[in-house]
Specification:
alpha+beta, elongated
């Protein structure tokens, strides 16, 4: 009687472990799919892939401009902010080009090097932009990214999705997939050993 209860408990434990392993594998597949349709297209679309050194030539704050209204957004999302323009000397080619914060900055407003997030306090926005401008004047040389193909003549300060960030995004689903597969393999080995012991 006790042996039957132990066998039943063992089978329940194996079933639960098997379900856990399959669930982890399924979740990791969903995470792979989500990353594949969100992060990977932005990574492959970016042409600023080569890192070089940029030297600041001038960093000026122009008159206030309006944040362009993106497609499908409401009018209330438009807000004025000082336009910071940073021109740098590209070490790779020696050209004088304009610097943007990220790829998204160029799409939101190609006239400005930095586009702030919408903030209710305009003084805070102005102070942040002035701080960024002073930092550029203080640190004249810094790494930046340019397009080796020449389709984009400007440069960006940092990529939205660098190679390390993409690898880090794939790390967690990979660990989950590996753990799920390991649980399934261990359950199958346990079942095989149990059947082999019973047969003997």
């Amino acid at each position: 009687m006790l042996g039957k209860k132990l066998v039943t408990a063992q089978k329940r434990g194996e079933t639960r472990a098997l379900c856990l392993g399959l669930g982890m594998v399924a979740c990791s597949m969903m995470m792979y799919f989500f990353i594949g349709i969100t992060i990977v297209p932005f990574y492959t679309k970016s042409v600023w892939t080569t890192e070089t050194v940029c030297k600041v030539l001038k960093a000026n704050i122009k008159d206030k401009v309006f944040c362009p209204n993106s497609e499908g957004s409401e009018d209330e999302e438009i807000f004025p902010y000082p336009c910071l323009q940073v021109w740098v000397n590209l070490t790779a080619s020696g050209q004088e080009v304009m610097l943007y914060q990220t790829e998204d900055t160029l799409e939101r407003n190609p006239k400005c090097s930095y586009v702030p997030d919408k903030l209710e306090n305009s003084k805070e926005v102005k102070a942040r932009i002035e701080t960024i401008a002073s930092n550029f004047k203080k640190y004249q040389t810094f790494p930046c990214y340019y397009d080796p193909g020449g389709t984009q003549t400007n440069v960006i300060l940092s990529r939205l999705y660098p190679s390390k960030g993409l690898l880090f995004a794939f790390l967690w689903p990979t660990l989950m997939f590996t753990g799920g597969c390991l649980i399934i393999v261990l359950v199958k080995i346990s079942q095989y050993v149990s059947v082999l012991s019973a047969w003997q």
